[in-house]
Amino acid sequence: MDSGSGDDFSVLFTPAGVLVRGFDHELEMSPYGTDDEQVWPGVIDEVPAALRPLLDDPTFVDEGLGAPRVTACLWWETRGSAWRTGSGIEFPSGSPDPDGSGHLFRLLTDRSPEAVQAHFEEDYGRPVPLDTVRHVLAGRPLTPEAAHGLNPAALSDEALLRRIAADPEVEAYLACDGEFDLTRTDPIESIALPAGLPVEPVAVRHPVSSSEPR
Predict the structure, then answer these.
(1) How confident is the model at residue 194, as a pLDDT?
(2) Residue 63's pLDDT band (cuts 50, 70, 90)
(3) CA 127 to CA 152: how far, in whole Å?
(4) N or C: which end of the chain has fewer CB within 10 A?
(5) Cα(3)–Cα(75) distance, integer angstroms
(6) CB 61 within 8 A of CB 74
(7) How many CB atoms lie within 10 A of CB 182?
(8) pLDDT value at residue 180
(9) SS (H, E, C) 101-144
(10) Digit-coded pLDDT (tens) for 130-147
């Protein structure tokens, strides 16, 4: 999960076990905050060899940093009996959450609707209806009403299709060999859309044979 503000965490599942990594960019324990731009001593030193390569994935190593982007790490080996963390970490003083695990992993330990609501209200800076959160966490279908509750700016299916059709590149395509009809129910084909537009299938007209009247 990415906060959108420079903090993130990942839960990685492998046959060898599970590894949870978290990163808070503003902490003293961040590689960006250390003198040598390396991971804080002890955080990943004891990660098992079978799980250690996960941290070196390019997804977790910023260009020019040369060290995994991590301030908190824990793991559970497949044949293990408990979660483990580095045993020799000397945490910096003066912070109640020095490695960021308290807030980064909050939703992993508290999945209550109230906790999820508080998390997203803090992240997005706007109210999120508790009933909508309960609806989603219960695994119910995402209705238009629920989608609007989560994101008031969400477009209806028809509005999204019309926005796609209005794009100049899509208009050019449709003018050549396709057609755009919201009422069509026959089979549809996918087309490559311009960068930034959702990938949605668009009904296209199949070429008629030379024997068919035009």
Answers:
(1) 57
(2) confident
(3) 10
(4) C
(5) 22
(6) no
(7) 10
(8) 52
(9) HHHHCHHHHCCCHHHHHHHHHHHHCCCCCHHHHHHHHCCCCCCH
(10) 999 999 999 999 888 888
Domain segments of the chain as ranges: 8-103, 118-150, 156-207
Classify residue 153 as exposed, middle or buried by CB count within 10 Å of its CB (0-12, 13-18, 19+): exposed
- Three-state DSSP state, 191: coil
For residue 11, give every residue at least 6 positions away whose Cβ sits within 8 Å of its Cβ, in sequence order, or none. 18, 19, 20, 108
CB 178 within 8 A of CB 202: yes
Q: Is pLDDT at 30 greater than 80 in this prediction?
A: yes
CA distances from 141 to 110, 119, 159, 199 (A): 23, 22, 20, 21
User: Closest by alpha carbon to 83, among 91, 73, 97, 92?
Assistant: 73
Confidence of residue 117 (pLDDT cuts 50, 70, 90): very high
Q: One-letter amino acid identity for 175?
A: A
Phi, psi (deg, nearest 5) at residue 103: -95, -30
Quote the pTM value: 0.65
Quick one: 107 exposed, middle or buried, by C-beta within 10 A (0-12, 13-18, 19+)?
A: middle
Tokens found for residue 152: 């008031």
Contact of 71 with 85, CB cutoff 8 Å? no
AA identity, residue 8: D
Rounded to whole angstroms, the Cα distance separating 134 from 112 reads: 9
Closest to 62 (Cα-Cα) out of 18, 2, 6: 6
DSSP 37: -
